[in-house]
Amino acid sequence: MASASRPLSWVFTLLSLLLLTPLIAADTAGCGKAPTITSGTRTLTVNNKSRRFIVRLPNNYDRTKPHRLIFGVHWRDADFQAVDGGSAPYYGLRNLATGNYSTIFVSPDGLNKGWANSGGEDILFFDAIIKQLSDDLCINEKLIFSLGFSYGGAMSYSLACSRPKVFRAVAVLSGAQLSGCSGGTDPVAFYLQHGVRDSVLNVQMGKQLRDNMLRRNGCASKNAPDVARNSRSKAKTEYSCTAGYPVTYISFDGDHTALPNDSGGDGGANSWSIREVDTFFKQFS
Ligand SMILES: *[C@@H]1O[C@H](CO)[C@@H](O)[C@H](O)[C@H]1NC(C)=O
Ligand SMILES: *[C@@H]1O[C@H](CO)[C@@H](O)[C@H](O)[C@H]1NC(C)=O
Ligand SMILES: *[C@@H]1O[C@H](CO)[C@@H](O)[C@H](O)[C@H]1NC(C)=O
């Protein structure tokens, strides 16, 4: 009698393991630990260089809850304080990371106020940050994101190329390929917005990133016309791609602007793009 039920219980054990393993594997070693890391500036040595970053824990940080981790990457000639402060910290996402979306935010500091990523050293910097935070804080490894404007968008794109299994999605606000794309064949969910009047990185440079991601994510081709110059409008295209790897492109009438308003000027904390990127990232759970 017992011998008949035993194989069955093994089947159940195996099934539970198969079902639970992906959930357990998504949580970092820091889950359950009293954190030693607090909000503020930290330093790491990477490639024999001292590197700085700001980390922001949610006020209600709960060590038992796997948090989202979002990197906000600064633009050229700025530094990590620019993303961490201002009227829309972390490109506006921090103020929206409430309730079930409580999030750990990180603003890394580039070398020489940029993201040249020489020899891949900036990618290694992100690796080191993720390792340090994962050992101490409770992070959902399946919900790691990066976004940035201009050079910060270029660096986010480079992360999508080199670390496609680490980053669930990246958002590029008026970026281009300036930080390399080592690897660059695996899919990563991707959001791009770019102004048709961009006088710093022209819109073709942004669309080059988009087209590469469309190939990687197996998206069906789709007509995605850019808005006309001075049309004071925007156009959003959502592509049909391999499940789990969506691509969204928003063309807007504006110049080189991180957070545009409806006339393409600087919308700051009222920019439509904050809600768009927030919604794009929050579709993943
Ligand atoms: C690391 O940098 C220090 C100076 O900051 C230098 O003395 C040392 O030789 C460097 N080490 C390597 C392995 O490059
Ligand atoms: C938050 O998550 C919990 C547990 O999954 C769920 O019961 C609750 O409805 C969620 N709340 C919101 C506002 O989504
Ligand atoms: C957009 O921002 C610009 C400043 O950059 C401002 O002059 C303009 O009035 C704003 N337009 C709207 C519709 O908010």
TrEMBL record:
A GO cellular component term found in this entry reads:
extracellular region
List where in the cell it is found. Secreted
* MF term (GO), any: feruloyl esterase activity
Recorded catalytic activity of this chain's protein: feruloyl-polysaccharide + H2O = ferulate + polysaccharide
Which of the seven top EC classes does this enzyme belong to? hydrolase
Its signal peptide is: 1-26
Q: Which Pfam families match?
A: Abhydrolase_2
BP GO annotations? xylan catabolic process
Fetch the SUPFAM superfamilies from UniProt. alpha/beta-Hydrolases
Instruction: List, for all copies, the residue spans of the domain called Phospholipase/carboxylesterase/thioesterase.
Output: 127-218
Assigned keywords, A-Z: Carbohydrate metabolism, Hydrolase, Polysaccharide degradation, Secreted, Signal, Xylan degradation
- EC number per UniProt: 3.1.1.73
* Name of the protein described by the UniProt record: feruloyl esterase
What does the record give as the organism's lineage? Eukaryota, Fungi, Dikarya, Ascomycota, Pezizomycotina
